[in-house]
Design goal:
Layout: H1 3-26, H2 30-33, H3 35-49, H4 52-56, H5 67-70
């Protein structure tokens, strides 16, 4: 998967998370009552329980972030 596809997937998951957080604080029951929010929640769960997030953030097999990301420095490979 190329870097642009990975970034798009990360952005989408961040948008889902932001939408879900807002809905939760406004009306927690909406997460189960609203089908779109419910689907977003399950997409996030699948993402974080699957290999995609480890691939997107270049984690090792234990789920540890690379040293540069731990320090908060994003760098691209040359």
């Amino acid at each position: 998967m190329n870097i642009n596809e990975r970034i798009d997937r990360i952005v989408q998951m961040e948008q889902y998370l932001d939408t879900l957080k807002k809905a939760f604080f406004e009306d927690p029951s909406s997460l189960s009552d609203n089908e779109e929010l419910y689907d977003m929640l399950h997409s996030l769960i699948r993402y974080y329980n699957g290999p995609e997030w480890m691939e997107d953030f270049e984690c090792d097999e234990r789920g540890e972030l690379p040293h540069d990301l731990k320090r908060g420095v994003l760098s691209e490979d040359e």
